[in-house]
Amino acid sequence: QCLLESAARDQRIPLLTLQLDRKAKVDQITSGTTTLCIAIRHGQVLSARMLLRAGADVNNQFLRNQATLMWPVFYRDMAEWCIPLLLAHGASTNLKAGTGNTLLHDAVGRNRIHAVKALLESGADIETNNEDGTRPLKLALDTGDRELISTLLLSGAGVHRNIGGTPSALFYAIFQGLIGSVQLLLEDCDAERDIRETDGAGCTVLHYLALSPIRNSAVVELLVGYEIEINVKDHMGDMALHIAAFSGKIAVAKKLLEQGAKMHLQNQDDKTPLDYA
Predict the structure, then answer these.
(1) d(C-alpha 241, C-alpha 267), whole Å
(2) Does the pLDDT at position 63 exceed 70?
(3) ANK repeats at which positions (predicted)?
(4) What SS3 state is found at 173?
(5) Residue finishing a domain among 158, 184, 199
(6) Which CATH number characterizes residue 176's domain?
(7) What is the dihedral of CA 210, 215, 218, 224, to 10 degrees?
């Protein structure tokens, strides 16, 4: 087995051919990995092709349930030659590692756009959750990468579904302070319909904005441009202005006031935004 692994690693074709002719065990797992993975990790294209032709199991899961296709997802320089090769030999795009992540989760989280596109074109499930209940779209929004987010959205990722404990992708992007993602969702992704939605506590996107790290008043202006109601109260009677005042978001509070927020309306504790300022 050591001869097979060293031949594959160093792409010593005569020795590799000899070992394969002798029916060496191509799928035996040693040191937590397979011979096919060793060839791939060392960039040995010919070795990988020979092992696959000899029947190497492309979906063999080894240490912590990792799959062979993981390597070109993790390492950018392998993606162009290795992903098509493994997919052509039947690699599954929906295997889950010990973390519960699919390969698409890992590719998105590492911002491997080439791998993401290849996996989606091969039928990777764009809506699957990992063990934390996280979909690939949430990971894409966290990167803020416009091409990555657009790729998922054009492939059918659900922007109107719950994400990260919020009602939709727009709510999540606002709450996390992802200004670029907010703009993309509103401009290109039919997120406008979510602007007037509320969550289970009666909070609007403006409430989420007042709670978010965003201190840029331009986002308020962007949202109110879609005719959102400024003075909506949540189930505790708080308007976005209450929360902005309590959170010290001065620029956001000023913009809300400019857009017609009322500073003297009380919440259920009989407090006005002015009381929190």
Answers:
(1) 11
(2) no
(3) 31-59, 99-131, 132-160, 236-268
(4) helix
(5) 158
(6) 1.25.40.20
(7) 0
